[in-house]
Amino acid sequence: MLAQPPTGCRHCIDGAKAQIHLTFRCNLSCGFCPVPAEKFGRDVMELAGTEIDPSSMERLVDDVAGRSELRGVAISGGEALLFPQRLLALVGALRAVRGPGFHIHLYTNGVASSRALLEETVAAGVNEFRVNNQSPRIFAKFAGLAVEAICEVPCLPGPEFSERMRRLIEAMPGMGLQRVNLNEVEVTRENRDWLEKRGFSLAGHRIAGCAEAAASLARHGGYHNVSVFYCDHETADRIRIARNRLTNEAKPCHRPIGG
User: Fold this and answer.
1) Angstrom distances, CA of residue 164 to CA of 167, 181, 199, 200, 246
2) What's the pLDDT score for residue 107?
3) % of the chain exceeding 70 in pLDDT
4) How far apart are the first and last CA of the chain?
5) pLDDT of residue 256
6) Is the pTM of this model over 0.85?
7) Are 227 and 3 in contact (CB under 8 A)?
8) Cα–Cα distance between 80 and 110 in angstroms, integer?
């Protein structure tokens, strides 16, 4: 049985969480990545669809501080851990202005992380890691941290993905990890060729078999006390609508790049 969403996801679905891109640079180049080609690789920050020069971080923090409807933020990239000092400064500043009840979760592929950096990030105020990886070796870095680390990956139907996920699910309890988020892949102009070359059956903006693959992994997770949540297109659309509302209601006090 598929699990209920974790705290960070519930805030997103409720329209109470904003997304901050710390950078669009990344140490990987994943074929399924949803970042538009024109943004990928650029070192700019983004809040509510507006690009912000990293030197103007304090203005971004002021924006978030003034939006009482927000219960948290999701920090993503690119790969945010490529810029540790910027990340720590942002998390620390948000925690200082919004207090202990403000929920901050961080997306990372985990490759560039050291145990020391992860502990610093937790100390700065991150509540939750979302790790886009399927390697037990990467997840071992997150074992025993004071906050939860959740495997969050796109759900790709097929034996290769399924086998990697099953091995990870079996290893997670031994590391004290208990959650997996599977995201239904949206077919876009950036990833369509990559998906077609790998033989996935595409139906509009969907890949056939995603829901069935998620249900199978949820059953496997149940045998190992690992909760599996599936974020389908309908849930993702609710999040997009909520974020668009936040964007339209926001009154940014920063000056956009080039503005």
Assistant:
1) 5, 15, 18, 17, 37
2) 97
3) 91
4) 49
5) 43
6) yes
7) yes
8) 10
Reference 74, options 135, 28, 7, 136; nearest CA is 7
Element (H, E) at 203: strand 202-203
Tell me the longest C-alpha to C-alpha distance in the chain: 54
Residue 4 DSSP code = P
pLDDT digits (tens, 9 = 90+) for 217-227: 999 999 999 99
Query: What pLDDT sits at residue 258?
Result: 42
Q: Please give the full DSSP string across 76-141, using - where no structure is assigned.
A: ESS-GGGSHHHHHHHHHHHHHHH-TTSEEEEEE-STT--HHHHHHHHHHT--EEEE----HHHHGG
Distance CA 221, CA 182 (A): 12
Assigned token pair, 198: 């790998």
220: CB partners within 8 A, 6+ apart: 165, 166, 169
CA distances from 207 to 3, 237, 256 (A): 22, 16, 36
As a whole number of angstroms, the distance between CA 8 and CA 14 comes to: 10
Which residues does residue 46 pair with via DSSP β-bridges, in sequence order?
Answer: 21, 51
The span from the CA of 47 to the CA of 63, in Å, is 9
Non-local CB neighbours of 17 within 8 Å, separated by 6+ positions:
8, 11, 70, 71, 72, 73, 74, 103
Mean of per-residue pLDDT scores for the chain: 90
- List pLDDT tens digits, range 51-72: 999 988 998 999 999 999 999 9
